[in-house]
């Protein structure tokens, strides 16, 4: 018998008190009780997003809905934009922008690489009329954390009018993210990753200059951030909100704020670092040039199939992610960004030892776990 | 002390076993366990929607997202459409179609009236090039149940090419609805009404001829029914689904199917009928010309303010809806479409007696409840 464990880069394990909150009797969304819950949740969300007091819009939908709403809220159809495509999600935003008729100047990088801000500078010099630069922060498909602070600085210097729009789906609540200090213009995320809530909510924050863009915009009917902002400031939503998920989110945000943002970011980094160190001691190299704390993207050892590793974890009740597209055969991706502590990091490494042994690798039991323990003790 | 009771026309009271299911540990959406849950839920949903075996698409979003997805899946931008506007939601779909550049021929009715199919015939004769007719089935703002069977027949006879697109947000699982037998082309709904699940899921069904329309379509990136259909047939979704709400929905659908669709429709009608009869005995006339079982839309007695009645219910822990827009002062709307039985219908009437007494109305205690009991005994 195994206790099921969700060690995927989202959806993640959700704390029991958050699950309990989602199972409370449903509140009507036009009541004072919900208005207060919603206002409290929005205030906490803004704190966790490092934009205290600002509007972070909560939508019923997936992270993709959040990015779509954000793009349409500040980029006119047909605009020229730069899209950093260094993985599955970067690619998704390129497709999204093209869907709306944007001319996308694509900065395509090999999977696993982090964006070089100077490459963006060169592109912007060629295309000074770019209206936005889109990038993921934590690219889940490759485990890369892009340096969006440096990216934003280059954009400010080279194309001051261009907005910087960031997919923070797996970085919000996981990695250091300072939208205002870093000069970002749009940050979009979802409930089921670092915020430890079931999937079904999308989040969107815009900078003042992004809100001020109004020329030629054409949001969808459902995903209209301005309509939502007006409503949400009054404790309402334009359409029926997913009240139960909001109730869970409020509790989850409380847990994160109790820990403190900087402590949280440090802990996330250390837990993920322990998994990476343990895996390295077992011959599994990291895939990402610049590691995101949201996920340990790991190469399977030579001659070992990554899907067999994923299967080995599944046989132990543990859900980790495999590689996507071309990376399928050699990549596997455990994550400790959910409701997980240091013992979960150790558990992942211990299971990896067992799985590699089963697959015929010469592993001495404890070899990875000791390395992970040293990181945790550090 | 009062036990809180949700007697609003959505979100509704959710059965505890459904709440329990939403609070189970989160499933990863790319697992066999979720694929099976999702397939089972989709099969049950198709049965409850009276289209067994068909694709009913499940989206993370509100009912509005479902209607938007449906409209864009079969109506090209710029098309001419008829919009039946007989309340808040009919008005919403007119706005939606205009948002996408449709030329909307509006059939505007006074609130409380049901659509006369012959009026639609006359409009279609004037505008034989109409590509779709949009209407609500149960118009929640007025408590009207439109005869969409007769409406569809008129459309078939007069403009055979026009699609019939129906907002079934508060009729699915509540009122008789036979999409195929009635010749409907699109049926859209949400989780938080007759399906007794927390809000956050939208549903969309299309007829074969609606799916066959592909000329000039332009869905949004997130709300793309064809992309979803391809994924959902394989037990997947295009974007991360709201897995916890799906788990709750599966349980709720099981409860509805155990009762049986026809028994369910009859019971819903009887419960709502009991509320209407009790209210009538207390001097509260029904607002709707053709009553929807989803909600008892009631006129406050002469010289009584409807918001005061809503407030009186609130003081007893009961959330009912007031009137919207111009109907605010004289309309109130309790609903028994959620997890509610005959004793909830009686409770609503008993509370109404008390509230009217408090507001100075000459009510004899038991006057309304007896009338309601007679309907329930009938």
TrEMBL record, chains A, B:
This is Aminotransferase class V. The keyword Transferase applies. InterPro entries: Aminotrans_V_dom, PyrdxlP-dep_Trfase, PyrdxlP-dep_Trfase_major, PyrdxlP-dep_Trfase_small, SP_NH2Trfase/AEP_transaminase. One of its GO terms (molecular function) is alanine-glyoxylate transaminase activity. Keywords: Aminotransferase, Pyridoxal phosphate, Transferase. The keyword Transferase applies. Substrate binds at residue 333. Its cofactor is pyridoxal 5'-phosphate. Belongs to the class-V pyridoxal-phosphate-dependent aminotransferase family.
